[in-house]
Each structure stands twice: as C-alpha cells, then as structure tokens.
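Extended Data, panel c. Modelled sequence:
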Amino acid sequence: MSLNLIMLGPPGAGKGTQAERFARTRGIPKISTGDILREAVHSHTPLGARAKAVMDRGELVSDDIMIGIVAERLNRPDARSGFVLDGFPRTVPQAVALDGIMAVRDPLIVVDIVVPQAELVRRLASRMICDDCGANGAPGEIVCRRCGGKLVQRTDDNEAVVLERLRVYNTSTKPLVDFYRARPTFRSVNGAQPAEVVASDLAAAIEAARNGGGSVSGGRR
C-alpha cells in the first residue's frame, strides 16, 4: 500500500519542515507546489510555458494549470510508492480535482497541523528564510542548512502582513479541513509543541490513519 499524504496547516505551522522530514524518513518524495512550478517553468514543458506567461503578467497561476502540473508530477515513477504534498490542494476545487487524479490509487491521508494564531504570529514575525532556495531557517541561524545560502527575514513577515496572510488562509484554504474532516483518513496534530514531539505525533497519526485506528490529535506539551 502506497503512502499518499497531504499536509495541511496555516503559514507558520511548520508543515513544510515536517513534510520534508517525514518524506525523507519514509523514502518518498516531498512535492511542494512552489518547487514543481519552478521546475515546470525551467523545463519548458507546455504547462510550464503557460504558467510562466501567467506569472510574467503578475497574475496567479490558475487551478487548471496547477492541477495539470501536479498530475504530471504524481505520475512519475518515484511517486508510485507514495508522496507528501505540501501546498496543494489550496482550495476545495483543487481538492476535488486531486480526488479525480487519485481515483485509481490508494487513499489520501490528510493531516492538519493546528497552531493557535498568537503562536503563528510570533513564529512568522521571527522567521528566517534562505535568500537562494527559499528554505526556512531556525531563529539565530544565518546559513541555510539545505544549500549554504544566506538566511534573511522576509520583508512581508511583519505583524500586520502576517495577520492578513492568516485571514486569507482562513478564508480560502481552511475550508479544505471541512472538506476532508469526515474522511476516516483525516487526522489533526497539535503543532504548538517542540518539533520533535510534533514529528512523533505526526508519524503516529499517519499510522493510525493507515490502519483505521482512532483519532490522534497530539496533546503533549
């Protein structure tokens, strides 16, 4: 049985870090929409060319282009035994399209990383990212662990902008939780814990979902 995982959570919840860690330990690809979009553009695929034209106009890439790029990536051989999706789906229409893509594959496991808003604001306001590859860095670090680039603070990581980003998330992306919540493979994890504890709770939640066990929400402090 393949392990097909969607990681949900607001900005600052740590889903990207946890997704990368989990994918590495399980030997399956972490598929980030930002990464595969850049790859499609650089590879000059037909969908990549369409995406580049849209982005060059300063517009958002449409659902149909993004869905096509994701479908192409999930059809590669390295994703046959499973994958971790980070950043997709972002909307209910994208989730419906993903269900269609997954119709002949093993079920999706969906994990929502839950963090209180005050903690999200604190994290985002102090977050450092790599100026070269965009990876997140830990507070106090100045060199990217992934590529060795310089870590800088995002210009839009101030409290007012952070609150607006969280408002947009709650409006457009949080409905995904309602879309998936009734599924037996949906779980939530308390993300307001040390990263090691979140990783442990995440692994337990995923195994429970795979085995049809009870809900694991993660409550340790």
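Confidence is low (pLDDT under 50) at residues 213-221. This feature is highlighted in the accompanying rendering.
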